[in-house]
Fold this sequence. Notes:
Structural class: alpha/beta
Number of helices: 11
Helix content: 25-40%
Strand order of the largest sheet: 3-4-5-6-9-10-11-12-13-14
Strand content: 15-25%
Distance between the termini: 31 Å
Radius of gyration: 21 Å
Amino acid sequence: MTTDRTNLLGLDLQAMEAFFVEIGEKPFRARQLLQWIHQYQITDFAEMSNLSKALREKLAAIAEIRVPEVMHEHISADGTRKWVIRMDGNNAIETVFIPEAGRGTLCVSSQVGCALTCTFCSTAQQGFNRNLTAAEIVAQLWIANRALNKDPKGNRVVTNVVMMGMGEPLANYANVVSAMNLMRDDYGYGISWRRVTLSTSGMVPMIDKLKQDCPVSLAISLHAANDELRSQIIPLNDKYPIAELLAACKRYVEGGQQRRHITVEYVMLAGINDSAQDAKDLIRILKDLPTKINLIPFNPFPGTDYRCSSRNVIEKFKQQLMDAGLVVTVRKTRGDDIVAACGQLAGEVKDKTRRSQRLAEQEVVFVK
């Protein structure tokens, strides 16, 4: 449901200050409102006690704090949680929380479906409907915090956010950056840039822009060490081949005040990209880039012809990379019993406009 009132949920500090100035109020009110919404999780202006009664009534007349509805919540045997969240047009997105010792990671979606056609990913098979607004992106963190604060154990909180859910985050640049600004803001969620990670399939121009606008941790969805194979797995590689992508990654980590590395995501596909030669090629192309390689066992979904590499093959692949001096981890599969593992998020995507048309529209935005 939409209204004529402004939804304040997705406004970062700069946008919130502009909103208050526009309605004739002092910009410092923005900080107060951000705390009420994101730290105290209050959505009723009447409860915001450090605002005057007149201001509360004004806000109630022209604005709202609207959080999407949770349709379903699924809890895995390993503690992973998945929320299916209703969007307009009978669409739905999925958000996943992964609890671990000393940390809790929330996997956040940025689009309803995805305009890219990566062959190993279930989301890509669902088609594409639209970008999420900044409010709909940050709402996933708001919803997770509300649900987890009710956990009787009281020990599962979101410490890390990864933009690795449904969609390509850099194809929804402005809204994703606004949402990440809120995640990082001390008046919002106060999450360090090191603990906010954006994963991209390789939209090179936007990687350079991200460094200037919102320098968070960066992960690249690589999955192959040569262009021919990567283009089969990730068709976007035809536009931004590996050399261009790795050059952008090198620019991203250079010149920063803090030491950085790039997380390289590499899904293990049996007989496709898991040979000793594939490992040798990966070592060669990554030798000059500070990286942490994350090997991801492939998680199957209906209709796929891919199979996961065997545990033995994955271990040999890992050891070959480590022997060359690379930092390597193997991602533990979590939440696969509730279809919440990496590559399995699908949601419900209706009204699918042709993906090629939507991707072309997004690329027009990139060059503006």
